[in-house]
Amino acid sequence: MSRHLLGLENLPAAEIRALVAAARRHAEWLRDPAAKGTSLRGRFIVLGFFESSTRTRVSFEAAGKRLGAATVAITATGSSLDKGETLLDTAWTFESMGASCLVMRHNRSGSPHDLVERLTTMAVVNGGDGRREHPTQALLDLFSIVSHGLAPEGLRLTMVGDVAHSRVARSNIYALTALGATLTLCGPPTLMPAGIEKLGRAPGRVIVEHRLDEALRGAQAVMVLRLQRERMQEGLLPSLGEYARLYQVTAERLARHAPEALVMHPGPMNRGVEIDSQVADGSRSVIREQVTAGVAVRCAVLERACGVAEWAAPDGATAPAAAGEFEEVRR
Length: 331
Ligand code: CP
What we know:
This protein has 331 residues and is an alpha/beta fold.
């Protein structure tokens, strides 16, 4: 088993389940803010966040520290990347200092993949690369879904928003379809990549529906995606007002079409654009729970990346045993 976690596209379903089950074990003891783990004592983890982040960066740092690791966070500004050092030379620098793991966010899709072939002892965990993948976000999303008693097998989840620029969308498509869910993707045609249906890990599990009312109907979970204005070229949307009119997830729309659905958002949110505050802060919202789950999931991912036995992945071939773990996650 590779210690790297670059994406969920090819991660076996049993390993996805095992990571969520391990995160559940961490979530138990993490509830006590004074509790400390020891499984990463003596390990050195570098958090290379070469693109902005709040949730991912802080939760990886919190996870590493709660498990006893030494963590150092670095950004592009103020590092030798500023002076023209290559990303590989920067990664080799961390490896030469004895880092067990580099958690990396970068705006270039595929950048963590370029490093792993050239590293020998340091694992790489993808904290989000361009529009390609954000695997730990999808794992914490899965954790949140299962925690609310929803089985991924047969789940009907609707994803609304800027699919084209969303690494969260891709990682969720890979993970959820691998586990038997069906995803309806909704957004304007300019923000919906042609052929996105083919990303599902089984045929027919990804559907595109441009009409929001239709897409919401019968959904058990609604995942709202951020409108990524910083990655957009001109002309993809007529106006924010027009976008909000057609695609904002509002309390009225939810009440009409999916009153029982869990409401999710990976953050950061554009309140009043893709999501109404009444929905974001409403009784069906699990957005803050998603953030809490992030620390537990990243504890499991860091233990795996550092080669710690305690993360206790069941053998990759024993899917039924791992599937049983999901029962424990449900409250
Ligand atoms: N969801 C997410 O990746 O948030 P940050 O950009 O704040 O890390």
